[in-house]
Specification:
Elements lengths: L1 H9 L8 H9 L4 E4 L8 H9 L3 E5 L3 H13 L4 E4 L5 H12 L5 E4 L7 H7 L4 E6 L19 H8 L5 E5 L4 H10 L6 E4 L7 E7 L3 H10 L4 E5 L3 H13 L4 E4 L5 H12 L5 E4 L12 E6 L6 H8 L9 E7 L1 H14 L3 H15 L10 E3 L2 H8 L3 H13 L3 E4 L7 E4 L3 H4 L6 H13 L8 E2 L2 H8 L3 H13 L3 E4 L6 E4 L17 H19 L5 H8 L12 H18 L3 H9 L5 E2 H8 L5 H13 L3 E4 L2 E4 L2
Parallel strand pairs: 1-6, 1-7, 2-4, 2-5, 3-4, 5-6, 8-13, 9-11, 9-12, 10-11, 12-13
Antiparallel strand pairs: 14-19, 15-19, 16-17, 16-18, 20-22, 21-22
Length: 637
Amino acid sequence: MKHSILKRYWGYDAFRPMQEEIIDSVLEGRDTLGLLPTGGGKSLTFQVPAMILPGVTIVVTPLISLMKDQVDNLADRGIRAVLFHSGLTPREKDLGMTRCRLGKAKIAYVSPERLQNERFLAELRSLTVSLLVVDEAHCISQWGYDFRPSYLRIAALRRIVGEEVPVLALTASATPEVTGDIMRHLGFREPRVFAKSFTRENLSYIVRYADIKEPMLLRILTSTSGCSIVYVRSRRRTRELAALLNDAGIPSEAYHAGLAPEEKEERQDRWKQDETRVMVATNAFGMGIDKPDVRLVVHYDLPSSLEEYYQEAGRGGRDGRESLAVVIAGKRDKALLTRRVNESFPPKDFIARVYELAGNFLNVAVGEGFGMVYEFNFSQFCSTFDLPPVPTQSALHILTRAGYVEYIEETTSRSRLMVVMRREELYDISLDPATEDVLQTVLRAYTGLFADYVYISELMIAERLRLSSEQVYQSLLTLSRLHAIHYIPRTTTPYLIYTTSREEPRHIIIPIEVYERQRERMEARVGAMKEFVFGSTACRANTLLKYFGESPNEPCGKCDVCRSARHTARLLREEASAPSINESIIYQASRPAGIDITDIIANLTPRYTADEITAAVRSLIDCSRLSLDGTIVKALP
């Protein structure tokens, strides 16, 4: 049945390596851990079983944007899925839960912070759950690079859906310590682990050193061809480098989390269709982007860990063809990595102050707020209290790990609406011409509006009607006020959830495990990143493999270290087989008429310097191997 489902819904005749083994383990009811590198096809390992098993498959994932993309992609294939996260309205949440109860949804994507809502957990008890999936499972481990305390609630979720329900944990990169931690936290029973090697034989890891990076980036891109990604760490740099590359005749676009959803889609589409060669992006780009023919991934700025680097570099060469993963590193990068550790762990009194100011900003009284979800305008918060953004964001993450709040950054959502009035009633309402045009365009452009919330684009509607986006927005608000539709405009506001009632700052205690131990682990990850980039003697592919617990047998032969070693070995072999400087001089001086010393120097440079040749000639004269007459050198018998 699994093969027929694969063919029917995805159009594939066979599974990728390791997919089928994981699926078989899940269908046998076994707790399963799948370690599949980026591009290994993790989603199919639970989507196929979900279509076979009765009831609902629950997928816990922290990536809200990817959650939406997967629900849309499944809908395109005729598979109904729903999602639950804090950015939904109560009406949307109720509709999603009703679909699960009625068997009209096979997969329910759940963000981890929803697991802190007791009402939501209670509603899950009414569902028939056949499989619990934990995507990005490394987030449950405090040894992992992206630990999220809300993931620890999954153990409780397992008790709610039933201990007999198997768990499938998936991640693209995990060290042996993290792998063990995942299975321990999830209470694996007789676990089965499927780990595909982290080896990417078609990927060459290259490091290039340059303190001024722009010329090096241009040199790399002009000397290679094909679709490329350039990773940076700031939104401003995406724009600056994209402009630089376009000026140099290399079609490029900038991509970061601050773009409107429509802009993201348009830029992704142009890049996927090869209208744009280079995407200059922050790490917001790549998750769920299925483009197999990326020939080059450049890290202009260094990530903080090898886990992050491996995932991002691994987006190159998914089609199996030769591809390059290039790091451009400068002297300042070591110091920047160290500074990143300090920014990630600001002083504890600063963390307590951020907690106090956040409560003031949201008007949450001491002793109040437990379980409440608040929209949290981070930029306005920082400007109101004159706070440095990076340490402030780190403070909120530490408060999340310490269990005081849940700070959710990734909440950019597309506009969506549902028609709540019966079709025949729509014709009875009185509308101005522009609003009438907007309504008719929406009804013609989108399907399923009477049954579910559908994502819309105000920009597309505006372009069709030759109106401004603001006019479309106002028309949709009018229709919403008339109760013809339920309209939810796009939002990019993060959320802050109080997981305990607000405390006084003096009662804020940051545990050693959350602060000191996590800092030590980040320092270790940063140290491994430095060793990978700035080490010049070990094969770079092997350095990665050893970090992830593998024992490679031999160097890759393709990274810059291996290529340099091979070049050096060749020069040494040539040197060993070449005649010595004395032998070369005597051979040339053995002519009957001898040879001018200037000709000897000309013949033996640049292999030897003029000083070395002159010194060797003097030594041979002193030991009666040569004679000198003016400038003519002759060999003596």
